[in-house]
Amino acid sequence: LLVVLAAAGMAGLRVDISMLLEPLGFVKVLEWIFAVFAFATCGGFRGETALLVSCKGVVNKTVTASFAYPFRLNTVEFSAPDPEGCGGTWTDVHLVGDFSSSAQFFVTLAALVFLYCIAAMVVYIGYNHVYQQSNKFPLTDMIISVLTAFLWLVSTFVWAKALVDIKMSTRASIIPEIESCKAPGTTCSFVSVTSMGILNVSVVFGLLNMLLWGGNVWFLYKDTKLHNQWNRIPESP
Prior knowledge:
This protein is mainly alpha-helical. It contains 8 helices and 3 strands; from the N terminus they run H-H-E-E-H-H-H-H-E-H-H. The protein has one domain. It is 57% helix and 12% strand. It has a 3-stranded antiparallel beta sheet, with no helix packed on it. InterPro entries: Marvel, Synaptophysin/porin. This is SYPL1 protein.
């Protein structure tokens, strides 16, 4: 991409905003916007899960564990019910699971796509004459779109699977796994967990990004010599 921009810069700037109204430019704007939403809905999430604990010297004390992107839940600790830890029966209690690789894959892809869309729009708007005169630029753009659509597919399904596991690791099913809640005289009950609807939306945006990039391949294909050569093939009698 840097080579493309450098070559375009040598040819001179010719600003043409109307390119954004054409399918190729308009889809790129949508890809840019949807990448922002995918990044924000996943990377900006913060939540907590809460339990109600009764133990030695403590009655119905709410303990919480706050978690956020990149969802390394195994480093998140529940606050102790009291300074003395229920008379010594309460030990460090962590959530289970490290889902950082899936979340970071999804968010990093969104960030890279965001930057690529900006660079592509600069070329479309300012150097469209160079873009159209060379078959290498549309062909490179098409290859990148195919690869990006595939990466959106993979990252979205990986992140969706991780999200299911995150929900399981922050809900009532965690109580039987907490050793401190099994101590004599200690009872734990689930209170609440922050709604993860915004994370569900991030998965939707991942799928929309995949469809956008996959559909954009057709518009890019029409700008390459491959499409023109196919149209020139004479029809058989």
